[in-house]
Amino acid sequence: MRIVLVGPPGAGKGTQAAFLAKNLSIPHISTGDLFRANISQGTALGKQAKSYMDAGNLVPDEVTIGMAKDRLDGPDTEGGFLLDGFPRNVHQAEALDAYLVERGIALDGVLDLEVPEDEVVKRIAGRRTCRNDSAHTFHITYKQPKVEGVCDECGGELYQRDDDSEATVRNRLSVYHRETEPIIDYYKQQDLVATISALGPVAEVTQRAMDALKSNKSA
């Protein structure tokens, strides 16, 4: 299956993408991985991306599109793929469509993970990270440490990262609504979108997604 995963920050796209890709036996392709791989390997596109990032600028669509095309040309995508974070806007979606048409293939579905805005803010703004090891994360509601403000793993101080602040989260949501959300309507015109609730246990959300994909494919 060839799938695009869409949803606001805090919807759990990364977690769901990993589970879905494993269940469907297809590669999970995330924008973050594309950037890291190209930059670490020193590809021409990676060097371009790094120059923009180092200058504090957004990486142009054409660079991101180029990375995505190169990755989709890989032999492991012949049986399908799951795209997470790409396309990020309608221009990128149009470029993806053109790429797929050239290769005589098409998307099977677009999964839209739906989460209320207040829940997104609660999920992200409630995160706390250990100053000693950023891999140690907790949450003031969902994963409380045994001692408030203290990491269970190493005893380090727990703090709220700047990019987890409520103001930053709401700004990220504004950017999502303005730039990425329009691709949902774009794909609805192709009758590809299945919207599912991303609330509840991870396994339940994954099952909803699997059921939606099966229903969409048989429709």
TrEMBL record:
The keyword Cell inner membrane does not apply. It is found in: Cytoplasm. InterPro entries: Adenyl_kin_sub (IPR006259), Adenylat/UMP-CMP_kin (IPR000850), Adenylat_kinase_CS (IPR033690), Adenylate_kinase_lid-dom (IPR007862), P-loop_NTPase (IPR027417). Its main location: cytoplasm. Residues 127-163 form the Adenylate kinase active site lid domain. Signal peptide: none annotated. Residues 30-59 are annotated as: NMP. It catalyses: AMP + ATP = 2 ADP. The keyword Translocase does not apply. One of its GO terms (molecular function) is AMP kinase activity. Pfam families: ADK (PF00406), ADK_lid (PF05191). Pathway: Purine metabolism; AMP biosynthesis via salvage pathway; AMP from ADP: step 1/1. ATP binds at G10, A11, G12, K13, G14, T15, R127, T137, F138, G200. Its EC number is 2.7.4.3. Keywords: ATP-binding, Cytoplasm, Kinase, Nucleotide biosynthesis, Nucleotide-binding, Transferase. Monomer. NCBIfam families: adk, PRK00279.1-2, PRK00279.1-3, PRK14527.1. Belongs to the adenylate kinase family. Catalyzes the reversible transfer of the terminal phosphate group between ATP and AMP. Plays an important role in cellular energy homeostasis and in adenine nucleotide metabolism. This is Adenylate kinase. It comes from Streptomyces fildesensis. The gene is adk.
